[in-house]
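User: My collaborator sent over this chain with a note saying "see what the structure looks like." That's all I know about it. Can you take a look?
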Amino acid sequence: MALTAGTRLGPYEILAPIGAGGMGEVYRARDTKLDRKVAIKVLPAALAQDPERLARFEREAKVLAALNHPNIAQIYGVEERALVMELVPGEPLKGPLPLETALNYAKQIADALEAAHDKGIVHRDLKPANIMVTHEGVVKVLDFGLAAVAQASDSSDPAHSPTLTISPTRAGMILGTAAYMSPEQARGKAVDKRADIWAFGVVLYEMATGRQLFEGETISDTLAAVLTKEPDWEKVPAKMRRLLQSCLQKDPKQRLQAIGDWRLLLSDEQSQVIAASVPRLGIGAWIASCAAALILGALCLWALEHYRHLAEEPVLRLDIDPPAGGQFASVGINSGGSSISPDGRTVAFVASTNGKINLWLRSLNEAEARLLPGTEGASAPFWSPDSRSLAFFAARKLQRMDVAGGSPLVVCDAPSARGGAWSSDGRIIFGSLAAGLFQVSALGGQASTLTFLDASRAENTHRSPQILPGDRFLYFARSEKPEYTGVYAAALSHPADRKFLLSTTSNAVYAPATDRKGYLLWGRGGTLFAQEFDPETLSISGDPHPIADPVSEVGTMGVMVASASNAGHVLYAASGNVSQLMWYDRAGRQLGTVGEPSLYTYPFRLSPDGRRAAVTRDRAGGNDLWLLDLERGVSTRLSSISSNNMYPTWSPDGRTIVFNRDNRNLFRKELDGAEEEREVTHSLVPYYSLDWSRDGRLILSQGINLGGEIGLAVLRVAPDGKLLADTRGNSYLKARFDQRFGRFSPDLSPRWIAFQSDESGRFEVYVQAFPEPHGKFQVSTEGGKYPEWGADDREIFYLDPENRLMSVNLNIGGDTPHPSKPAALFSLPFIDNGWSPYDTAPDGQKFLVRAVSRQLSQSLKMIVNWPVLLKKGAAAP
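Assistant: Without extra context I'll predict from the sequence alone. Here is the result:
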C-alpha cells in the first residue's frame, strides 16, 4: 500500500518515501513517542494478506530484533503489517574501492554476519543493496533473515529481485537474490550460514573489481552462471585472492565454514590494515548519545565534575543493576568481573542472560546497559588509560575492543590468564594461574614473561596486576608459605626488584584521591579498606580506614572485586551468590531442597550410595569442605584447616575423600575420624581430583602445567594411600587444549573417560577409550560441558550453552561407539561460574543441583567522592 506524508501507523508518522524493492516499500518516518527518525518497510500485499505468513513474519521479526550489533540495522518492531527499523543514513555499498577500504568494509560485514550466525540467524539475501555505508564509514547490514519470510516478486531484474516460492515451508524453495545466491540456493536446497559466506565472497569481489560476478539477461541465465561459471581470478587483487577462492567454492563442504575465520586467509600485512582501519563513531553520534541522558546520568556527571573539588559535599552512593532478566556473573574460573573506566564515566561488567555470559557496558549518562557483541564467555575486563578501549579474556585469548563500536581483536594467547592491566606506554600486563606475570603490546604479538615465580618462597601464582603512576605496578602473589602471600610492587623496568606491601589473600587496587594523595584499597574479611600509599616511594603509611562492607573477596582466586577511577569513584561488588541444593527429576520437577542456603562454590560430589554430598562453602579468605546428610539436611565440617579446600572426590567404598588444598596438592581424609587429613601428592604443578575408579586403583585429576594449560592426569593409589603418577608420565590427555571435568565410565575397571575440551574453539563433550587414549568421539553437538555418566555406560548427561541438561544414549559395546541425538531434559537455574552445578544420583533418575537462591546484592555498588569518607571517618554502608 502506498503511503503519503502525514499518514500515521500507530505512533509513527510517515515523512517521505525512500524506495521500493522485493521486500516492499520503504519510508522515512518519525517515532512520535521517542522523537526519533525510523525507517518503515511496508510489506508486500501478498505477504500482508496471508495470515499464516504474516504470523510467521512477526515471529521472525521478534527473533531478528534480538540482533544487537553496531554493524546491523536494528529492528524495532512490527506495526500494522509494516516493519519498523533503524533509519541508516548513507549510501548503498558500491565498488570498485581501494583495497584498504574494501577490507575495512569487509571486516564490518563479516562481524555482522558472525553475530547473526552465533544466534542461528542466516541472512539469505546478502547483496550491496542490503549494505549501507554511513558518512562516517560505518557499515550497516539490512534485512537480516527477511528473505526467509518474503514473498515472490514479479520483477525480472536478476540483480535485484528475490526469486522465492510462495510457501516458506515447501521443500525445494529458493530464497535469495539470483546474482548473489549460493549454488545450493540456486538448486533449491536447504541452506545454512555457508550461503552467507558465498554471498560475502560475491560482494567482496564486486567491491574489489567494481563488476558484478554473475550476470545474465534473465534470472535463469544468472542462476546458470552461478552454477557453472568460475570467477576471473586475474581481476582480483592478489592479496585477497585466497580469501575469495575459499568463499566461492561451489561445494559448501569445501567452502570457508565460519565467517569469523576469513581473516586467517589474508596476509599479516592485510590483517594489520584491517586492525588499523576500524572506524570510530563521529562526534555527532557521541553528542546524540549524550543528549539522551536521564536524571541518574545527570547526577553522576555532576558528581564527576564537582565532587572531586568539593570534599565537604556529601558522598553519593549508586546501585548499578544487571541487564533485564540477567544476573551478574560470579567471579570464578574464567568468569565474572567488573571495572570502572579511568574517567569514571562507564562501567564494564560481566553478566549472564539467557544462559550466556557476555560483557556489558553501562554509561553513567544512560539508563540501560548495552551488550558488547562478540564477547561471549568474557571475564576480567579492564580499561585502556584513555577509557576508549576495553580488554578482557575469552576463549583462552587476551582480546581488546573499541567501546565506540566494532568487534574484539585478539591480542595474544592467554590460556590461563588471571587479571590484567593496560599501561600508558601501550603494553598490557596479565597474570596467570600457575606462573608469573606476562607482558605484550596492546597492538598484539607474542607475550613475554615479566615476573618469575620465586621457588625459594614457594610461590605458585602472580596475578591481578595494576598500573601505578610512573614506571610501576602492583600485583598479587600467592605462596604455599602464608607469610609470603600478599601484594607486591615493582618497576616495569626492573620487575625483579620488588617490594612486599601487604599481607592479604587477594589483590589491592590503587586509587588517587582529591588531595593528591594515593591510596591502596584492599580487602579483609569482606571489608574494603583504604590506606595511604605513595606510588613514588612504594610506601604505605597511616591506619587503614574501612570504606565499604560487604565486598566480594574470593581468596582462592586472589581476587577482590573492586576498581577505582581517577575521578574519585569506587566500584565494588557485594559478596557472592547464595545457592540452594535441590533435587530435580528427569522432567525438571523439583523434588525438594537439601540443607540451608549457603555460599556454595566449586564442584560438589554425591557419595557412591547417594546419601551424602561433599560440598565446598565459601568463607572470608578461603573455602571449607562439609559433608551434607541428604536425608536429614545436617552438615558436618570435613576440612580441619581453614584454607582453600576444594574438588572433593569419594572413594568407591564411601570411606575416604581426596581433595585439593590451596590450588596445589591433594590431601586424603578418612571419614571414620581415625586420623587428620594427610598430603598425598607433592608437585610443582596443581592437581584437582575429579573421579575415583570403582576398582579403587585410580584417581582422575585435572593437571595444570607450568604454562597454565589444563589436561587430564591419572594417579595410581598405592597401598599406603599415597597417590603416584601414572607410569605413562601422568598424562592421559596432554594440555594442548583446555581439557577438564573428566569422569571415568561406571565400570569396575573403567573403559572410557568422558571430558570436555575446547579444541574445536568452544567446549564440547567427548568420550575416549581408557587406559590407552583412542577412538575419541564427540557426544555434544552444539556445545557442551560438565559431563556425568548415568547409572551405567549407556547414558551421558551434560549442559548445553543454554544451561539445559542434555541426555545422550550410547552404544559403546565395541570400538565404534554410536551416540544418539542429544535430548534436552530441563533447564538448570544457576549462574555458571566455571564449576559444575549438578551431580547425578547413582540410579541416573534424579539430579542434585546448585540452584541460585538469591544474590546478596542485586547490583554493583558505586561510591562517588569516596575520599570524603576518610575525612569524615565514616564508612559506606
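A starting point for your reply to your collaborator: Residues 577-855 form a domain with the Neuraminidase fold (CATH 2.120.10.30).
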